[in-house]
Design goal:
Blueprint lengths: L10 E4 L13 H5 L5 H17 L4 E3 L7 H12 L4 E6 L1 E3 L11 E3 L3 H15 L5 E7 L9 H12 L3 E6 L4 H10 L10 E5 L8 H9 L3 E5 L20 H10 L3 H10 L6 E4 L4 H8 L17 H9 L5
Parallel strand pairs: 1-2, 1-10, 2-3, 3-6, 6-7, 7-8, 8-9, 9-10
Antiparallel strand pairs: 4-5
Helix pairs in contact: 2-3, 3-4, 6-7, 8-9
């Protein structure tokens, strides 16, 4: 179920690469330039939010672990008087202390204690409740989907009007999502939204996302450009953009990232597809995905889920 008004572009802006100085997107350090102090990053993020808003985008995605992303977004919202649709996430804590060379950037903990601590932090940073509130990178291994106390608390938040859900990561995305679809608190599923990785390299969650959409869940796609691997600076086995993707980009007069995002937008179950742009130029290129033909014959670039996530795990923070 989409939270966007009819006619609103289904592209949103994710702040994973904007709310903190280090991230794993290819070329991230170069994109942000030499100065990465808090004030400079805030000004840059506000400029990106302004550009996205002016382009018609109304969905913005943050998380407690995205450095100061919630703070930046909340400050921008109050200063501009805008009311976007906001998604945020709990379950990871930012621990890098604003360093790009930190040995650890995020600490994962899906306990009730983390939820109870981070929910008021999110409210304070944003200045209001998010429209979507997701478990950050839920997996079967953490046991969060079997934690009755966590599920009960999320059910309370959903009853209060927050669309609760989960984000997924790793080769087990589909199994995790199906477990969430089956979760019940007093006979009612506490979830109504999912944010999952889907792209031309890693489409394995597609069938499960279609099932969630059929159940009325909001479906948000993240990493549609595979952290830059499906952009002009992307990496394949030979260090080049996959030829089939590059060929479509040339044919349509756009950049490869626009084709990759258009492929995600073409999925009938996708309510919102996130741009992870770090610069105004990247955002302009991403926006061209909205004009790419929806009925295209998308190239088959799929890797095994295990191979994809192994490669992603090796990407350096920069």
């Amino acid at each position: 179920m989409s939270l966007l008004a009819p006619g609103t572009p289904r592209l949103g802006l994710g702040l994973a690469a904007l709310g903190r100085p280090g991230y794993i997107n290819l070329g991230h350090g170069q994109d942000l330039g030499v100065r990465k102090d808090v004030d400079t990053m805030r000004a840059h993020t506000w400029a990106m939010l302004d550009a996205a808003w002016d382009a018609g985008l109304r969905y913005f995605d943050a998380a407690r672990s995205y450095g100061r992303a919630e703070e930046f977004l909340g400050g921008w919202r109050r200063a501009r008087g805008h009311e976007p649709v906001i998604g945020s996430k709990w379950g990871y804590t930012y621990v890098a202390e604003w360093r790009t060379d930190a040995p650890v950037h995020e600490a994962k903990d899906h306990s009730l204690g983390t939820l109870e601590r981070q929910w008021p932090e999110t409210l304070a940073a944003l200045g209001r409740a998010p429209d979507l509130y997701l478990i950050h990178s839920a997996t079967l291994e953490t046991g969060v989907l079997n934690d009755e106390r966590v599920l009960a608390r999320l059910a309370e938040l959903r009853a209060a009007g927050v669309r609760t859900g989960l984000s997924t990561s790793g080769p087990g995305q589909a199994a995790t999502l199906r477990r969430a679809l089956a979760a019940r608190v007093d006979g009612v599923c506490p979830f109504g939204a999912v944010q999952a990785t889907w792209n031309l390299l890693e489409p394995s969650a597609g069938d499960a996302l279609a099932e969630a959409h059929a159940e009325g869940w909001t479906v948000v796609v993240k990493e549609g450009v595979a952290n830059g691997r499906l952009s002009a600076r992307g990496l394949s086995g030979q260090g080049d953009v996959p030829p089939a993707l590059a060929g479509l980009a040339r044919e349509w007069g756009v950049t490869p990232d626009a084709v990759a995002l258009a492929a995600a937008l073409a999925q009938p179950w996708a309510d919102v597809v996130l741009s992870g742009a770090s610069t105004a130029e990247q955002l302009r290129e991403n926006l061209r995905a909205l004009g790419v033909p929806g009925g295209a014959d998308w190239p088959d670039l799929a890797q095994s889920a295990a191979e994809y996530w192994q490669t992603r795990a090796a990407l350096p923070w920069q």
